[in-house]
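pls design
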């Protein structure tokens, strides 16, 4: 291996001032997840290990370090909502990450408005321009290469209703940058926005013509 590369085995430590993993795998979309306990207590929390994993049906998922309130609520009820975190909602999103006692309402704490779901009994963030109402499909406890169980839980759900602000649709086409989504980067505080100025397009090659 070239000496121009820093190489390390994660199990032995990275040898750097800060773990670079979150900065390398980034920027990452934010799973701003709302859930509700079986007794009706609302919860709202951001997760930076989040993405979409299937088109039809649409399946999204987030990963939680430890069995947090979001995971517990979703297992209890089988439902959750993903809310798009935007630049305008960045402070509220960050406020909702506070470690409140179980049962305290992060909607109220972060100053956002709960809006009833149409297909699930979980509140959506009214100020968010995009919301996915989801039904739980799987909860998977992650494990390492030796089969050891990790305190990390992957929650997957099918989006059964999707709500999009009409302002983000132009001729029926969703405008990604217009929503001002924010993305998580490395370190304790780094986020990024996106811009149409940075857009480029590539067309997938047709292997039959090669």
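designed seq:
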């Amino acid at each position: 291996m070239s000496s121009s590369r820093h190489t390390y085995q994660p199990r032995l430590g990275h040898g750097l001032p800060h773990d670079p993993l979150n900065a390398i795998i980034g920027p990452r979309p934010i799973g701003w997840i709302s859930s509700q306990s079986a007794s009706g207590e609302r919860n709202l929390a951001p997760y930076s290990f989040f993405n979409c994993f299937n088109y039809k049906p649409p399946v999204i998922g987030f990963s939680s370090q430890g069995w947090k309130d979001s995971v517990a609520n979703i297992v209890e009820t089988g439902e959750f909502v993903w809310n798009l975190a935007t630049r305008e909602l960045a402070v509220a999103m960050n406020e909702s990450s506070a470690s409140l006692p179980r049962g305290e309402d992060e909607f109220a704490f972060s100053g956002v408005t709960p809006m009833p779901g149409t297909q699930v009994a979980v509140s959506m963030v009214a100020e968010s321009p995009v919301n996915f109402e989801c039904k739980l499909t799987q909860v998977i406890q992650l494990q390492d290469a030796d089969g050891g169980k990790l305190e990390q839980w992957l929650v997957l759900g099918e989006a059964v209703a999707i709500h999009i602000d009409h302002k983000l649709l132009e001729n029926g086409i969703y405008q990604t940058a217009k929503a001002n989504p924010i993305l998580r980067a490395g370190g304790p505080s780094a986020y990024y926005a996106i811009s149409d100025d940075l857009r480029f397009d590539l067309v997938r090659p047709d292997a039959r013509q090669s």
